[in-house]
Amino acid sequence: MAFIVAIDGPAGSGKGTITKLVGKRLSLVNIDTGAMYRCASLYMIRNNIHLDEIDKINDMLKKIEIKQEKINDIDKFYLNGEDVSDKIREKDVNSIVSQVSHILLIRERMVELQREMGKNADIVMEGRDIGTNVFPMADVKIYLDASAEERANRRLKQNEEKGIKMSYEEILENIKFRDNNDKTSPVAPLKQAEDAIYLDTTNMTIEEVVDKIVNIVDSKRK
Ligand code: DC
Fold this sequence. Notes:
Elements: E1 4-8, H1 15-26, E2 29-32, H2 33-46, H3 54-63, E3 66-71, E4 74-79, E5 82-83, H4 91-101, H5 104-120, E6 123-127, H6 130-134, E7 140-145, H7 148-162, H8 168-184, E8 197-200, H9 206-221
Parallel strand pairs: 1-6, 1-7, 2-6, 7-8
Antiparallel strand pairs: 3-4, 4-5
Helix pairs in contact: 1-9, 2-4, 2-5, 7-8
Bound molecules: 2'-deoxycytidine-5'-monophosphate.
2'-deoxycytidine-5'-monophosphate is lined by residues 11, 33-35, 37-38, 97-98, 101, 127-129.
């Protein structure tokens, strides 16, 4: 049986960075499930498939192949063989991915693919519903959180590094809006699994969070 670590939490909680580092420290394959919904969104934009076109979505799900691969220590995402790692982070994808992730048909297929990934490898998987829905029997479940203000600050820094111009107020408003959307979604709403360990990272460094998770996993694995 593979060993599974589930990491869930809201936007800007540091899941992406922390999952990668935990994977590296513990030799677990790290998987970014948000990127999978982003790949499906990109395909829909390119093929002019609207959110309510269920037949076309069904057809798309038979045709698309999504892969995550590590090249020189960088996670790359492939959509039908094409490297779309940068394209899936662009504005047009950002603007529809949340709605795309709420389409039941798409979610069912993605969850199926995610469960397959956990069959043959020890993994650390990040998302919104990993501990509650994808792997309710995960060996370790972590729910990462931080205050909305701290998450907005982190996003502001990331944006500055990437040359993206957005004010702190605008980012904070967007984070609060997304929090509400994610938590009240009728399909797989973001919530902490009952048996997940809650980590408030507001006043923690990345290294502290990673150390803490590594210790939790180590004590479980023994
Ligand atoms: O983590 P992210 O921003 O790349 O996620 C993109 C979108 O996908 C976000 O709106 C939440 C959604 N998502 C989801 O519903 N379930 C997951 N397991 C992962 C992401």
